[in-house]
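Hi R.,

Here's the chain you asked about this morning:
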Amino acid sequence: MSEVRGVPVDYTNLGYEALRESMLDIARRTLPEWTDHSPNDLGVLLIELFAYASDITLYYQSRIASQLFPATSDEPEAMVQLMRLLGFQPRSAVAATVELAVALDATQALPVTVPAGTAFLTTTPAGERLQFETPRATVITAADLGPVIEDDLRWFLPVAAVEGRTVTAEVAGTSDGSPDQHHALAEKPVIDGSVTVTIAGPGGETLWHEVKSLAAATPVQRCFAVQRDADGGVTLLFGDGVNGAIPPRGSGSDQVEIRADYRVGGGAAGNVPPGTEFTTSVSEIRRCNTPAGGSGGTERESLDLSRDLAPRLYRAQDRAVTADDYVELALRTPGVGKARAVALNWNDVLLYVAPSGRVDQPSELLRRDLLAAFESSRMATSTLRVLGPEPADVYLSANVRAEPYYLQSDVYAAVTAAAAGLLAFDAVGFGEPLYLSRLYDALQSLPQVASLTVTQFSRDPLGGVDADGVIELAPFELARPGYADTIHLVVEGGVAR
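And the predicted structure, written out as tokens:
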């Protein structure tokens, strides 16, 4: 608050009406001879024009100011730029992994090699076509195969595969020999860590490697950094001759091409259900499915999560010392959904990890990635062991009386969905207790439900309702539904058909 010729001015009045009224109030105080403040007056017209122009100007100024702080920014691209100032890059979509069972003819000559990069295709119930690729070659020998079963097939498990599609030899641009070159990749979303670059010129091809930052690169180091935008697109950044080498310039008609190989995909769609069937071009494979389903696929990091994680990771500074450091850095590893760490002593750390979207054991690929990620951040003398969560099966049953004007089938679906939400992967954490009162709140608040009685709320499949209405969990347990359909219901009332 300040004054203009003794008249107080409130600078929080930002809207058109507030600005108009404030200017008219100043006019009344400073120009008492001006008495006609009706809309027909020319002076009022000018004030309204100024209020209108000021309202628009202040709107854009406020928008610009709000984008300068993580707590108030709501523009994805602005948030990405702010996070970059902290050395933080929001996590891109993470690709799911599957362990495939493949069937060969009993008379098939062995060994059979499934090459690295072999594509396995499937279609989701929503009609989306997904591609998984093998990260390494798998050799199937006679000793690896199971006995002959139906259709004279012998099965082998597992063949590891990762969701996504490989783009090869894409020409991202041509080098002009200038420092700080930027070249954008054509397809998105690009899976983190999958980009390799080959620079091809008159002197042949050279392989350039990705680094986290060009700041520590030497003048002759052939490297590049990856800069992501809010939509999952990627721009390749090259050095300036001081921090990182400059891609050379061609001569005459001999251009220097910057070619990129990378993978696109990622997201929760890759968490396919158990038993999903796949097809492949490997002629020796007769059938292929995933007994356990896919896990680890997550969507790109939300703005709210970035606001929360960026300051915490800035404090950790890529060093794993405390248990919280281990948890924060583990959550940055693609495919990790939940983590909890405990130090057995000064140099022995247990890291409990659940893959994204499912209470299950982490795959071997995820364990390997975690150990590799901590290799440079943990103390040299510390020992890290990666373990899976201890599943805690929870059994729920209820008698539900429906409102008379709802179909019983709709009531059943709504109550089941609400109960499943309480035990959803994103809703529970390691060791978090479950409360009967929250189950009643979630179900009773549904408009389809007139009344209900919970008859089972227990970890015992034959149990009733725990006496205190609380299901306690051990520190490294994660709750999950005990029934395939989450909850057993008896629905009364409503419309039967």
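The chain has a mean pLDDT of 86.

Let me know if you need anything else.
M.
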